Task: inverse folding
């Protein structure tokens, strides 16, 4: 429910009584990481990890270490976790994410491919691999994985979002726009979804609708200026501005 402060408080209370409670340590770490306080999550996770062999705790510890800027330690820990059997797919995903964040994209792809060998047809792993392949511009392979994942999990929002992005990158804007409309009906406040939908509309020549959706994505979210500028500048039916302030002024105007 996004109540991270309250989740942190309750989990900390449980850990006062039982310092190695796996569930409480997991909740506390997730709450701290969600609040961009990864460094504070390390100590309670390490305390539990020393006493309990738990792949979930180790995966969260890897995420906390990476978030605190200790990526090499995170990668070393996650490599040990992914060597365990039975496999724990989230550990492979976290390791791939840390490697990708370090610019080691080929290694990240290899990690998820190995995970899929161990857990074939795992939708979350297929989604992770597809995202990495899109970063490597292997769009055909990424789309094949996403179509397969969609067949296995038709309503999975992240599969649909990533597939829509792949379609947009391939210039299939009408098909992408249909997916974005469906997703926005479920998550109307998702600014990134709306910006990508706007990019589709602009490419389709629906300039007024595209710009209206960009304005809606920008409303109250100044951090969206980069994505909105990108959509306007790169669309074949977009607009070009000489100054970022001109883009902001244009998008803050009522259409």
Result:
């Amino acid at each position: 429910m996004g109540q991270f402060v309250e989740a942190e408080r309750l989990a900390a209370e449980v850990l006062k009584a039982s310092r190695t409670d796996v569930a409480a340590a997991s909740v506390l770490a997730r709450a701290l990481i969600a609040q961009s306080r990864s460094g504070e999550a390390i100590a309670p996770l390490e305390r539990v990890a020393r006493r309990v062999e738990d792949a979930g705790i180790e995966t969260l510890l890897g995420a906390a270490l990476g978030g605190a800027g200790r990526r090499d330690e995170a990668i070393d820990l996650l490599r040990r976790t992914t060597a365990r059997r039975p496999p724990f797919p989230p550990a492979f995903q976290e390791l791939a994410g840390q490697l990708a964040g370090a610019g080691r994209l080929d290694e990240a792809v290899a990690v998820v491919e190995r995970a899929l060998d161990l857990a074939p047809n795992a939708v979350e792993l297929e989604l992770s691999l597809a995202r990495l392949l899109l970063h490597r511009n292997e769009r055909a392979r990424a789309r094949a994985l996403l179509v397969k994942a969609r067949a296995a999990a038709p309503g999975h929002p992240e599969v649909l979002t990533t597939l829509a992005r792949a379609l947009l990158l391939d210039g299939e804007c009408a098909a992408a726009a249909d997916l974005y409309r469906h997703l926005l009906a479920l998550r109307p406040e998702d600014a990134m979804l709306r910006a990508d939908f706007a990019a589709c509309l602009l490419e389709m020549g629906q300039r007024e609708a595209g710009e209206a959706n960009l304005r809606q994505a920008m409303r109250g979210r100044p951090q969206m200026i980069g994505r909105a500028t990108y959509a306007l500048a790169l669309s074949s039916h977009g607009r070009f501005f000489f100054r970022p302030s001109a883009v902001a002024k244009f998008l803050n105007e009522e259409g």
